[in-house]
């Protein structure tokens, strides 16, 4: 995931009307336009990282071809807060490359401008699914797709083989593997210091909800039922309760989860896997290069998650959009940058081969062949999962408050072994109903 946290609540404390006034509808007056103005590009990546370098390479190549100057700023911690501050100061960047899940919030804040899909050169080369992730609840587009991704299981292959166990084909197999990793000393050091599941279960940025989503769907549960663009809470259904009870059991009964998971963000979860604390991590392809370096490619395997109680597999589908920010003095340049980024050349640069510098995980341009850019066949696992069972989060006007509320609730359930999941999820459903009504999306 590329999760959300209390900083998002800053939205409520900022003068929201002031943000809208600062940014307007996104269309700056024609007289204020300057096609030679430098594009300020913000990307949600760690400063100094290889992903920042790739973004700068992409921007430099764009400048070389278009003549439009660019400046890239990589930000990671509290990215959304800093974007809010820039909006309040009327100093928004021209381009933001960030999660697809942020679209609803950005639209709500009025700080992105609508995209004329038909006017974007090369838009017809992008996959239909990627365009769906750039569409708002009103059916209009507010971003240009740039990257897609799905998730899979990273499993300590050396541990599994040392214990003589097979690759998991069901949730029961997966739980048995987690139990063995916790109780049978898979690293052979004679100490009870290993666990099964690595779970980034913090409420910050909604990590716990993010982790649960794929398993919720695989169990036959859902956040909502939808009809004709209107939604009804489904988070307290029997299937949803069963999914949360299963997760709680890993924390409270089997005790197969790495300690500290309830406050763990991905920045702590990644080291827990690569240093041998836990042996099963459901995460994205962007971690392969890191784990190859820090753990060793021969020590782990990448597998699709097995079917859940519903008999089906599921994976959250995510990605990143290029957002054309409101009030830019170079709207033509914004569009040109997006067009270059989604071109075959732009996508190829963004994929960064088999390195950890990728800002394009799975290409959204259908004319880019994955195998022609990457020789690591593990990427094919994620590509197959994305195409066959990938699902984006519900198309409510603003997903952020639902993700945060569900993260808070599920985190509280697994942190308290005396909790009542059915009762807690019923309360969550009430919260969902209130938010749906507030957003004008209730059935």
Q: SSE layout and pairings?
A:
Blueprint: H1 10-13, H2 16-23, E1 39-44, H3 50-66, E2 70-75, H4 79-88, E3 95-99, H5 103-109, H6 128-132, E4 144-149, E5 152-156, H7 157-162, H8 171-183, E6 195-198, H9 207-218, E7 224-227, E8 230-233, H10 238-252, H11 266-274, E9 278-283, H12 288-294, E10 300-303, E11 315-316, E12 318-324, H13 331-342, H14 344-351, H15 370-373, H16 379-389, E13 390-391, H17 400-415, H18 421-439
Parallel strand pairs: 1-2, 1-3, 6-9, 11-13
Antiparallel strand pairs: 3-12, 4-12, 5-9, 5-10, 7-8
Helix pairs in contact: 3-13, 9-10, 9-17, 10-17, 17-18
Given the C-alpha coordinates, what overall shape results? globular
The beta-strand count equals 13
CATH topology of the largest domain: D-Maltodextrin-Binding Protein, domain 2
CA-atom Rg in angstroms: 22 Å
Total domains: 2
- The side-by-side strand order for the widest beta sheet comes to 2-1-3-12-4
Q: Quick one: CATH superfamily of the largest domain?
A: Periplasmic binding protein-like II
Report helical residue fraction. Answer: 40-55%
What CATH architecture of the largest domain do you see?
3-Layer(aba) Sandwich
- Give the strand content: 5-15%
Q: Show unreliable segments.
A: 2-22
Enumerate how many helices there are, as a single number: 18
The secondary structure category is: alpha/beta
**Which class of the largest domain in CATH terms?**
Alpha Beta
- Overall mean pLDDT: 93
């Amino acid at each position: 995931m590329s999760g959300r946290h209390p900083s998002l609540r800053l939205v409520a404390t900022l003068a929201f009307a002031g943000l809208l006034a600062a940014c307007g509808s996104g269309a700056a007056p024609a007289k204020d336009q300057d096609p030679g103005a430098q594009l300020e590009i913000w990307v949600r990546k760690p400063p100094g990282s290889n992903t920042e370098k790739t973004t700068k390479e992409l921007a430099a190549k764009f400048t070389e071809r278009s003549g439009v100057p660019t400046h890239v700023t990589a930000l990671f911690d509290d990215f959304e807060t800093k974007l809010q501050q820039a909006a309040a100061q009327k100093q928004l960047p021209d381009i933001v490359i960030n999660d697809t899940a942020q679209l609803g919030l950005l639209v709500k804040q009025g700080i992105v401008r609508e995209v004329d899909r038909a006017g974007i050169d090369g838009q017809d080369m992008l996959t239909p699914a990627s365009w769906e992730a750039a569409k708002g609840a009103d059916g209009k587009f507010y971003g240009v797709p740039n990257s897609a991704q799905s998730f899979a299981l990273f499993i300590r292959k050396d541990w599994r083989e040392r214990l003589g166990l097979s690759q998991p084909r069901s949730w029961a197999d997966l739980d048995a593997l987690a139990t063995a990793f916790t109780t049978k000393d898979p690293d052979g050091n004679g100490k009870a210091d290993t666990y099964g599941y690595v779970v980034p279960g913090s409420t910050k940025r909604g990590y716990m909800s993010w982790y649960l989503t794929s398993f919720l769907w695989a169990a036959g549960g859902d956040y909502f039922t939808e009809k004709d663009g209107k939604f009804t809470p489904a988070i307290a259904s029997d299937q949803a309760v069963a999914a949360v009870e299963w997760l709680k059991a890993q924390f409270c009964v089997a005790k197969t989860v790495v300690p500290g998971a309830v406050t763990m963000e991905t920045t702590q979860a990644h080291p827990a896997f690569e240093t041998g604390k836990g042996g099963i991590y459901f995460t994205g392809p962007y971690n392969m290069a890191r784990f190859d370096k820090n753990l060793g490619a021969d020590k782990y395997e990448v597998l699709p998650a097995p079917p859940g109680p519903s008999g089906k597999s599921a994976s959250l589908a995510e990605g990143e959009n290029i957002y054309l920010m409101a009030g830019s003095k170079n709207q033509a340049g914004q569009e040109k940058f997006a067009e270059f980024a989604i071109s075959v050349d732009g996508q190829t640069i963004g994929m960064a081969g088999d390195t950890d510098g990728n800002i394009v995980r799975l290409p959204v341009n259908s004319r880019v062949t994955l195998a022609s850019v990457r020789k690591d066949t593990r990427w094919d696992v994620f590509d197959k999962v994305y195409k066959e069972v990938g699902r984006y989060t519900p198309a409510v006007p603003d997903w952020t408050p639902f993700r945060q509320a569900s993260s808070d609730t599920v985190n509280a359930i697994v942190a308290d072994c005396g909790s009542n999941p059915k009762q807690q999820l019923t309360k969550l459903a009430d919260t969902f109903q209130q938010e749906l009504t507030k957003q004008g999306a209730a059935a």
